[in-house]
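An instance as discussed:

___
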Amino acid sequence: MRELLYNAAKHFKRGKALSERGDTRGAMVAYEDALRDLHAVKPQRMRDVLLAQVYLSRYLLGRDADPLKADSDLRLGYSYARTTSEPTVRQLAEALWTERLTRPPVVAPRDVRSSQGRRSGKGQGGQRNESGGRSERQGRRGGRAERGGGGSQ
């Protein structure tokens, strides 16, 4: 696990360097590599600090190119920053969050919003069905498909 943290830190540093040189695409790839490694590590302080830094860096880099994705990165970075006791990361997250609140909200284009409701097949995406999240075939038996015929429930 320590190796994954070191690799993630290297990817993060590479992303920062690429970003400073103006290579946005390369920086985003490096940040994505860092996130892949960090999400493979069990939760701990250093992991959360790095996750906050990577997500906040992705927000800064992508807020003009893809505002919806950038807002998601800001929310994740802000959340991870709040779980750490690292003051510099928390201050950066608070400053970016406050700055974001002063700008008008980003609205998804109509075609993106209309396709989100079709993901789950029924109802709104993310809503549970009447059986508490289980499919119709699973019933109440915790994942096993119900068999036809009489049986008590």
Observations:
- Confidence is low (pLDDT under 50) at residues 120-131, 133-141, 143-147.
